[in-house]
Design goal:
Blueprint: H1 12-26, H2 29-51, E1 59-63, H3 65-79, E2 87-90, E3 99-103, H4 104-114, H5 117-136, H6 142-157, H7 163-181
Helix pairs in contact: 1-2, 1-5, 2-5, 4-5, 5-6, 6-7
Length: 183
């Protein structure tokens, strides 16, 4: 997870943030999740058009932390331990329709801890972007999609990632790939 300090105030991200702030004030969790699902669809459409990706039909599950952990634990039993994140995709290489699971509670708690709704949004978008790109080519390793994810995130969110954020994401990608090789 990372924090975002600068972003265009007339861009896509600012529009999402304005809507989210209103929903936070009304404490409408269902509408916050509906906005999150709409952002997922917007990410898919952006990646299809801007990166010419062939993305399968995806299902999105916004889970509480307990349920997300249960699913992750089951995956670890089958595929071996791997670095934990706040998003996973299942079925992308198992012949079934892919499902993207998001630890919605963890993403949202990051906003609570920083007091900035934008941090919830940018990290949710980063998780979506990575899993959607994986769905387009499940055989690619984390390090192979790292640059695509960074470029897509910058384009969709209309921001410039710092080198520190890019290095942090690359470091995770290398750890995830190393864990896959140990299986």
């Amino acid at each position: 997870m990372f924090e975002l300090d600068e972003y265009p105030q007339n861009g896509r991200l600012a529009k999402y943030e304005k809507e989210l702030k209103t929903l936070i004030q009304t404490k409408d969790d269902d509408e916050i999740k509906a906005l999150s699902k709409r952002i997922f669809t917007d990410c898919i459409n952006y990646l299809k058009t801007s990166f010419n990706l062939k993305i399968p039909d995806l299902h999105l599950g916004l889970l509480n932390h307990r349920r997300y952990t249960e699913i992750s634990d089951k995956i670890d039993l089958v595929l071996g331990k791997r670095p934990r994140t706040y998003a996973i995709i299942l079925g992308d290489n198992l012949g079934s329709p892919p499902e993207v699971y998001i630890d919605f509670e963890k993403h949202y708690s990051f906003y609570i801890s920083t007091g900035k709704p934008i941090n919830f949004l940018i990290n949710l978008i980063a998780s979506y972007t990575e899993e959607i790109i994986h769905s387009a080519d499940p055989s690619k390793l984390e390090t192979e999609i790292h640059q695509i994810v960074c470029n897509a995130l910058e384009g969709f969110a209309e921001i410039k990632l710092t080198e520190d954020v890019k290095e942090q994401r690359l470091s995770y990608a290398k750890r995830a790939d190393a864990a896959k090789k140990l299986k």
